[in-house]
Amino acid sequence: MKGKVWKPSVFMVLVLALLAVFFSVAYAAGPRPIRVVVEGTALDVSPQVINGRAMVPYRAVAERLGARVSWNARERTATVTDGDAVLKLTVGQATAVSNGREIRLDAAPVLLDGRVLVPLRFLGIGLGWRVSWDAVTRTAQLNSVPALTVRVAVPDGVPALSIVRLLRERPSMGKNVTISYEVVRSPELMAAKVVSGEADIAIVPTNLAAVLYNRNVPYRLVSANAWGMLYVISSENIRSWQDLRGKEVHTFGRGLTPDLVFRYLLTQNGLNPDRDITLRYLGSGTELAQAMIAGRVKTAVLPEPAATQVMMRRQDVSAVLDLQRAWATATGLGVSYPQASLLISTAVLNGYPEFVDRFLQEVAQNAAWVNNNPQTAGIWAEELQTGMTAKVVENALPRCNIRFVPARKARGAIEAYLRVLHDFSPEAIGGRLPSEAFYFQR
């Protein structure tokens, strides 16, 4: 049977013709131009898309936002000043300086047709504006950020050291942002501040973060900041885990994370915690450190900087076992355990993304700074009355393992850590491993 030859109707021909005209006009016209709208008013600034990023003439936009601008032709740098916010950008460099601190840019500023084009998002956020993008209309919206008051609480010790420069310098976090910092001496008070919502941002033991999440306390884990700080220190001749057999070892916090980590590593090294050694418990790390300084304890599990405090007072005591290194070997992960992590309330995470980005950049830079500047960090820690002397901090920092790792990258190590704690004591993490929503993703 012969097939019919399809003949287009007059109507179909007309439709096809109209579509052809439409597409040819659209193609000829090109993509819709980008618009920049500030508080509802469109700016005539001719933005351009360069390598997928919206770039704008820095002077036109900055002046419309109420900032003062200057250009150094010799250094090819643009400086934008608005109140206490000072931004310095250099053509061709993907880092800018905001109030003396380096900040990574999505794209480097470019010099095009005599104008300096900078990333719109950075310029807006750097001056304290909220920037949003509508891909359909190709419109960038800049609106003022509602006033925000943020309370940051950290325990004394290594968590306080991990943000010591923030505690000391208290840098601006943007227009309309008021931020306060508190170093908390008591673990119970620290937990209470988070549970009650008195702290918008907190650094807490990672297992406590899991407990809070499992109890529906509205925070998310944003980063891991302290990667283990526990050591066996001793005046006895101990060179390996097997040398602990038959020894009396003092520790603190029965059933808490230092105890659970030590017990896990004993079992991984062929020792039964209840038969092969004698464990003695004191009430706190501070109490244990004082007992060892007084000579009443020979071998102990202590965190930094308390371990360094003891070793500086007793020359016959040294660090004989590194629990972080033993953990990396026992788990096969090659990394230590994330002992302390940063939490941010969901209200702040969802309502103020610009502030969150800025704060996290500061925390990441602080972690690098404190490791490179132990002497200054020690002086500042003592001045801030964090409970640590300058010399103790300076000597302890290499063993504090302060490192900023975003939640998305730290998740595997966090889950491995929580799983070990759960196997020893489910209550230590709130009964179950947290779900995916526990981890802040950006």
3D structure, described in words:
The protein is an alpha+beta fold and 442 residues long. It folds into 3 domains: 35-144, Copper amine oxidase-like, N-terminal domain (Copper Amine Oxidase, Chain A, domain 1); 148-228 and 337-438, D-Maltodextrin-Binding Protein, domain 2 (3-Layer(aba) Sandwich); 230-331, 3-Layer(aba) Sandwich (D-Maltodextrin-Binding Protein, domain 2). It contains 16 helices and 24 strands. The strands form 6 sheets. Strands 15-14-16-23-17-24 form a 6-stranded mixed β-sheet, with helices on both faces. A hairpin with a 4-residue loop joins β7 and β8 (95-98). α8 crosses α11. The radius of gyration is 28 Å and the shape is elongated.
Q: What is the class of the largest domain in the CATH system?
A: Alpha Beta
Give me the CATH architecture of the largest domain, please: 3-Layer(aba) Sandwich
Number of helices: 16
- Total separate domains: 3
Largest sheet features:
6 strands, mixed
Q: Report the count of strand segments.
A: 24
Helical/strand content category = alpha+beta
Average pLDDT, all residues: 88
The CATH topology name of the largest domain reads: D-Maltodextrin-Binding Protein, domain 2
**CATH superfamily of the largest domain, called what?**
Periplasmic binding protein-like II
Strand arrangement, major sheet: 15-14-16-23-17-24
Distance between the termini: 62 Å
What best-fitting shape do the alpha-carbon axes yield? elongated
What ranges have pLDDT less than 50 throughout 5 or more consecutive residues? 1-6, 10-29
Share of residues in helices: 25-40%
What percent strand? 25-35%
Q: How large is the radius of gyration?
A: 28 Å
